[in-house]
Structure formats: C-alpha cells, structure tokens
Amino acid sequence: EVYFKNLSKQKQKEVMEKNGNNHKLRVCVATCNRADYSKLAPIMFGIKGEPQFFELDVVVLGSHLIDDYGNTYRMIEQDDFDIHTRLHTIVRGEDEAAMVESVGLALVKLPDVLNRLKPDIMIVHGDRFDALALATSAALMNIRILHIEGGEVSGTIDDSIRHAITKLAHYHVCCTRSAEQHLIAMCEDHDRILLAGCPSYDKLLSAKNKDYMSIISMWLGEDVKTRDYIVALQHPVTTDIKHSIKMFELTLDALISFNKRTLVLFPNVDAGSKEMVRVMRKKGIEHHPNFRAVKHVPFDQFIQLVAHAGCMIGNSSCGVREVGAFGTPVINLGTRQTGRETGENVLHVRDADTQDKILHALQLQFGKQYPCSKIYGDGNAVPRILKFLKSIDLKEPLQKKFCFPPVKDNISQDIDHILETQSALAVDLGGTNLRVAIVSMKGEIVKKYTQLNPKTYEDRLALILKMCVEAASEAVNVNCRILGVGISTGGRVNPREGIVLHSTKLIQEWSSVDLRTPISDALHLPVWVDNDGNCAALAERKFGHGKGVENFVTLITGTGIGGGIVHQHELIHGSSFCAAELGHIVVSLDGPECLCGSQGCIEAYASGIALQREAKKLHDDDLLLVEGMSMKEEEIVSAAHLIQAAKLGNTKAESILRTAGTALGLGIVNILHTVNPSLVILSGVLANHYVNAVKDVINRQALSSVKTVDVVVSNLADPALLGAASLVLDYTTRRIY
Questions:
Q1: Strand, coil or helix: 31
Q2: Is 492 marked within a binding site?
Q3: Alpha helix segments (H runs only) across 478-563
C-alpha cells in the first residue's frame, strides 16, 4: 500500500513538472439547475479546498436564474462560491421549440465567457440540454471536458444527450461498474475513465443522523411523523409529453386517494412542464390540506425529507439513485429512468393506464424500510475525482483514442416482472408422500421436492421445515419472491388458527397439531393451512375450470374421497370446519364399512382404498386376472389392477366399478339437491373412470331443475399443490393488489 501511495505521489509530481511547477489547473464548473448542482457542489468544495492545485471558476446558467424555478443560484451563493458569470439562457415556453432555442442561445453566449476564462478543463454534469450546449462550446474551443455520470442508461431524450456529451468529452467520471462498461463499449479510452461513484453520495451517506424533525415540520407541518408522508417529484417526458401529463394526472389522483401528507415539487423546465403545472392547479394541489407544493427545497433539507419519508414517487433520477442510500421505498413511474440500475427499494410502474396500478404500488411500498444501497457510491467519490484531475497531463494531445470491448447488459426491476415472479411455497401432506413446491402467481410449478411422509409427528414436522428451507433458498436462485407458505393436509382443519384438528387414518400422529406457529417462526413467513379437499377447490377457482364460476363443487377421487364447495365465490368451511366432507355422504344404510367407522359412505365404495379392497377379494378368489394380465408374486394388488381387468372384459371388475360410479353419482345428486352448484369438477386419478357413470346417475336420479349441471374432469396436473399455493396467493393478492 505504501509503495502504491508513493508511486501515485511520484506520478502527480511528474504531471506537475510537465504542466509547469507553478501552474495550477484552472477548472471551470458550469451548473444549469438544482439537480446538477447537488452533484457538482461536493466537487466544487473539494477543488476550493486545495487552492495550491486548482483555480475554480463557476458559471451559472439555465433554470438556476428563473424565479418560477426558485432562483436556485442563491444556494450557490449561500455555499460561499463566487459566481464568475451568470448567463440567462432559457427561452420561456416550456415546449420542444423553446428547448432548442435555449440550446442555441447558450451556444451564442458561451464562447465569449470561455474566451475570457480560458479554463484548462470544464466539468459538465449529466444529460440536460444546457449541458449539451456547454460540452459543444468547450469541445469546439479545444477545452478539455470532464463529464460526470456518463455511461448511464435511462429513458427519453436524456439518453441521447448524455451519450452525445460522452462523445464530446475527453475524461469521464462514472458512478457504477455498468456505466464504466457502457463507456468502454462506446469506444472511450479506458485510461480516461474513472469509476468514482456519485459525488452526492459523499454527503448522503453522512446525512441521515442530522436533526430532521424541524425540517419535516417546516415543509410538511407540525403534525407529520417520520415514515408517514410522501415526497413526489415528477418531470415531463420530452419524447412523449402527452402520455407523461396523463400519467402525472393519474399520480395525483392516486395520491389524493391514498390520503397521506405529500410534498410535491414542481417539475423541471423541460417541454411539457407548463402543462403539468396546469394539472396541479386544476386539481387544487396547492390548496389541498394533504399537499404542500413547492418550487425548490435546498439539497441538504431535501436529503432529510427523502431519508425519512414513507415513500418517494415520481420519475426523477434522484429516486432511483440518491434515495437508495437511505433505503426509502421508491415508486418510479413511466419510462424516464428506464435502464437505470436500481436498488431493492425501487418498484417500477412502467405503464399505468389507470390510477389503480399506482395506488396498488403505493399500498405495497409505503412505510417499508429497505437495506441501504451503495450501487451509486461509497462516500469517497470526491477524493478520487480530485486525484484524477491532478493526474491530467495538459501536454497530452486532445485527440481521443477508441477501442471496442463488449458491454454487459443491465436488468432492472419492473412491477409486471415482480407480479410474474411472486410465488408461494406449497406443501402437500399425503398419506404416502410429503411434497413441497415453489408455485408462481400464474400457477407454474417452478420447483418440486418429494419425500416419503414420516410416520411420527416429530420426524414429519422436521422434514417439512427442512424441505421448506431448502425450497426458500432455491427460490432466490430462480428469481422467485416467496409471499408465504400454504399447506394442504388430510383431515379436519381450523384454517383460522392453522391447526389440524383431526386427521384421517392415512396420516398417523396428526391430530391437534399447530402447523402455523413452528413453520412461520422458522421461515419468518405467513402460513396458511387447510384441508386437501378445500385446497383442490381453491386450485380450481384460481387456475382451473372454476375460475370465474360463482357456485361449484370439487370432488377428489383418489386414495380417499374429499372435496370442497365454493358458494358465491367463497369457500365454505362450516361452523366446526367440517363442511364438504363429501366422501362421507351416506348412499346406502347397509353398505361396506368406511374408515370413518360408518357404513355406506361414498368413500367406502369409490375411493382407491375401496377399489383395492374389492380387487383383493377377487384376486383371493382367482377372479381378478383375465387374459392379457399378469402379476408378479410379490406384487401388491391395487385399484389399478381392478381398472385394468375391467378394461379387458372382466365382468365382475366392471360391476364393481359400475357400483362405485353409481355410489359417487348418488352422492353428487345429494350435493346438487343441497347446494345447487352450476358446475361439478371431478379431480384425482379416478376422475376419468367415473365421469360418465356420474352423468348417467344425474340424468336418472336428479330433479329436472339440476340436471343441466356441468360435470367435468379437472385439467390441473397437481391440484393439491396448486390449492396450497392458492391459500397464499389469493390472500396476499387480495390484500395488496
């Protein structure tokens, strides 16, 4: 480290000798508006603090000198900088033609100023049309240009202006690694690029601990608390003025509906700003009790306001850049900052066609606290920039060198992208297997894990936690944001408390079990639990045939028989959470014994266990196998063998399946006469074998008023997991979106 420090000092000494021992670098800093001054001021203080190396000349132009935009040149004077020249360069009109005329006026006035100052180097910031005039003048007058914040990507005409200044500039100070890569890809000489970070971060990262309550009270009122107000700053988009004004209207409507104290800053001087101000006045923002509309806030105070806000909304680069230093939630509207690198705190609303989308974003973001982001700086930009300035050799030729390296693409957040990747952890507790899956908002099973279901409570709960932790970790890798955990299990469940009250005999040691508490505590996520039949109905309501249907019934035909009833779009649980135990509807008083202890239940006839029982009886009497069938000696007889025998013409197997289908059909007729649904969905592995029999029974046994009911087979591949995911996705999306 000492070696490299000495080497750096030696290089600076050599540069000083080349430039002339007594020659100080004459630096001209030109500032056009309040935004660029916040970035340039830290550099100006640094230059002023080293008079042995630098001479500083300050030129002020643009909207700094306009009363409607706050006469912000005064803050430069308050910072004790001598302003060498004031140039009135803005042609009023706030339209496209006025912007062009303003650039032309600046080009007319700047040559005289630069001839008098004769700077060695001019520092130009950003992507404003004023800055383009500065860079053009300096480049044509053979004055070296140091461009701050080149290489970044955003929307509108600003991108074109920024890159045009990059091509005119001789030296570049960029804020992020991606910006550096973009500059290299734009053929700029790597040796003339400094990755320093954003100069404003030098002040931002040390600002939050200062006294702020008096500032909040001054700008928003005595009764406003931290994290309970909004800062709004929205500018026109010059490439689509009409749309940006419409979005500004929607933003104000959403803020009025959201009903929180809001500080609204007037837009900048770009084309379209006049129309945006008209919108503010039309909606009465300046006189609304919840709003404070201001032309300008001093940067030091603005820092405190955004640092302690509940949210910032708009399309200013400040929102996607500086505000990240505090972890304040940001809603970035429209395309003005498209392509900018952003922290986790920024939520994009690219295309709001109604105020609802903006309102939903406010509900999602307001009051959150995100980790502080240092994407744009670490607080040490100014020392790096001063060191870079000292290393400039004025005897080097002005001609630029070019090269052609690759560029690394940048991917930013988008509200539609977040909606696509919001996901749930779904858990299915079956009699044999325990399954966990990551399920997306669209019902896609992104990743699935399967293990045998342990026999004891302790082993089962430990395995659930282990599989959920593994799935949650994998969710990060597949870009899924987990909203919560949904659990589908057999038995009677209290979904309000997340407790399994009584289990089926298929799952041992699974009664009076609190599933919600241990899983929520371990994963720090909300947890929902429900019966597997109810979950199947929820899966159909969200992803299947039941989508948009007001009244329908789902029956699961698998190892057991279960189901769920949706009435007026809501799932029915019953007074003791025993509704929709459809497998235990009695269809015969002297039928076979059911696992529940009763006789003649649908489950005793039509479940997989019932069919397996009948298949074993046939097999024991050597009546199961027919020509075309074979079984290994150790093979266990199952319902599948009975179905295969029936297909191959075994009349006794056909009779058993016919009886099972009739029992199921009679049970469904009872359901039709009780709750009168418009749709019956058969789900599970046996559904296709029963659907025709069920329709026949309905035609023969049901009242004519319910015979028109639709009976369909589910098209969902995994209703148990999708239903468990629906527990999470339905609740969270209903509450937030």
A1: strand
A2: yes
A3: 516-523, 532-543
How far apart, in whole angstroms, are the C-alpha atoms of residue 55 and residue 108? 25
629-640 confidence digits (pLDDT tens): 888 878 899 999
Q: According to the annotation, is 584 in a ligand binding site?
A: yes
Tell me the residue type at 94.
E
Residue 497 in tokens: 């408390």
Active site residue 159: no
Residues 345, 323: contact at Cβ < 8 Å?
yes
Q: Token pair of 430, please?
A: 């079956």
Q: pTM, whole model, 2 decimals?
A: 0.51
Q: Which helix (H) or strand (E) holds 497?
A: none
State yes or no: 504 annotated in a binding site: yes
Q: How far apart are CA 721 and CA 488, in angstroms?
A: 7
Is 3 among the domain residues?
A: no
Flag whether 594 is marked binding: yes
Domain at 178, CATH number: 3.40.50.2000
CA atoms within 13 A on the CB side of 47: 25
Question: Binding site annotation covers 581?
Answer: yes
pLDDT tens per residue across span 715-737:
998 999 999 999 998 876 553 32
Low-confidence ranges of the chain (pLDDT < 50): 1-5, 407-408, 410-411, 735-737
Domain span at residue 711?
Answer: 545-715
User: Phi/psi of residue 261, each to 5°?
Assistant: -60, 130
Q: Using CA atoms, how far apart are residues 59 and 730, in angstroms rounded to an integer?
A: 58
The mean pLDDT value of the chain amounts to 89
614 among the known binding-site residues? no
Burial of 370 (0-12, 13-18, 19+ CB in 10 A): middle
In the numeric block, which tokens belong to residue 398?
Answer: 């002005």
Give the residue carrying structure tokens 């009679």.
666
Of 324, 301, 298, the closest CA to residue 216 belongs to 301
Helix/strand/coil (H, E, C) string of 134-169?
A: HHHHHHHCCCEEEEECCCCCCCHHHHHHHHHHHHHC
Exactly one of 68, 532, 621, 696 is catalytic; name it.
532
CA dist 697 and 667 (Å) reads 10
Overall domain count for the chain: 4
Cα torsion 365, 368, 371, 375 to 10°: value is 30
Both 224 and 123 in one domain: the answer is no
